[in-house]
Structures are given as structure tokens and as C-alpha cells.
Amino acid sequence: MYSVTLFDARGISAADQRQAEDIFRATVDAILGGPDGVVAAYRAFCAAMDEHEELPLPANATDSDRAAVARWEEAERAGERAAFAGWVGNTGGAHFALEC
Prior knowledge:
two-stranded antiparallel sheet
């Protein structure tokens, strides 16, 4: 299981924040095969980032690390697009964080 928190979304209600978190979660769940898939993909992404500490990944990164980063980033972008769809104005530094 995992939790999602939306940070730095200024000026929105608590209900709107929960709704955005729920939409993000539902989207990444659908893309990555449910909560277990999300946790596995996120942990693989974190492991690759722990190893290389930079994006884009350096030339010596493994194909597995590249795939893990690409898979997570694709799901994360889709989740953000879905959660922020319909927002008026700039989302600024608003972002989602996972805790596994």
C-alpha cells in the first residue's frame, strides 16, 4: 500500500486537494497495474535515482535503470495531467509525493 500527498498547491480547498490526490492515485494505479505495481515501479525508480543521483541518467546507467525511470516518469506525468486537468491558472510548484 502507499499514500499520495499533494504539496505546494496554494489556494485550493482540502476537498480539492483530496480529489486531486485521488485522481493521481487512480491514474497511476491504472497505468502500473494497481497499488502493488505502483509501489514496485516507484521503488525501482528510487533505486535508479539513488544509484545515479541525476536526470537524465548518465551514460553508464543500465537499461533496467533507464526502463524504471521511464516507466515511473510516464505514469507520474499522466497522473499529474489527470489530477490537474481543469485547473485554472498555473499549478506553480504543485507536485505529488508518494510514501510506500
